[in-house]
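ok so for the tutorial part 2 we go from a plain amino acid sequence to predicted structure tokens. step 1 is just haveing the sequence, like this:
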Amino acid sequence: MVAKLASGNPDIARLVEKQLRNWELGRQQRFKAEEPRAQQVDDFVCISRQVGTSGEQVAERVGGALGWPVFGRQVLEAMAGDDEQRRRVYASMDERELSWWEETLRSLMEGDFIRNDYYHRLCETLLSLASQANSVFVGRGADLILPRDRGFRVRLVAPEADRIRTFATTTGIETGRAESEMGRIERERVRFFRHHFGVDPDDPMRYDITINMARLSLDQSVAMILEAKSILHERS
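step 2 — the prediction. this is what the tokens look like for a chain of 236 residues:
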């Protein structure tokens, strides 16, 4: 189903191709620097959000400020369902990176929770992208899949009334329908996280910072993320 979505939706296909080009540019810049890496994954930002908190817009601005590609839910789902796109990423990995990738993937497949084919492909995709270039990831449990001792994890929240208004404006639907659709999406997310990870998506301990989007503008939220990330990096 995901593969059909990627191949059948030209907008998503173009978005995937755009982000892969950005990813390849970032990877080339890393190789030009010729700096040895202590970790297989240097740095990343994971943005988790409640529905109606403008998470994609925040991610794009954070990525733009850092000069990093942004991989949102649609792109990650499309790549997880596209064998050719994943092969394109794998082909660029050297032996050391592949060894780390296989070992980490093997550890993620162990445990008590359900590990289906989609989960396996999603993990493959996230680990491959993160190992090759610094990136911003939106949703899909990226913060739970990528190394816990690396990166910066953000949670975006807002009161329900604010989120309904934002979701209605973004989708162009009336408020009553927006509330119903938003609730459906949130329930699906809860099922996804409990099914694959056995966690609650609202657990605050997963994140380095939680931002109430009702209190801050997009620019202020991005500035706060960048500042907090910088402070955490200085401490590590």
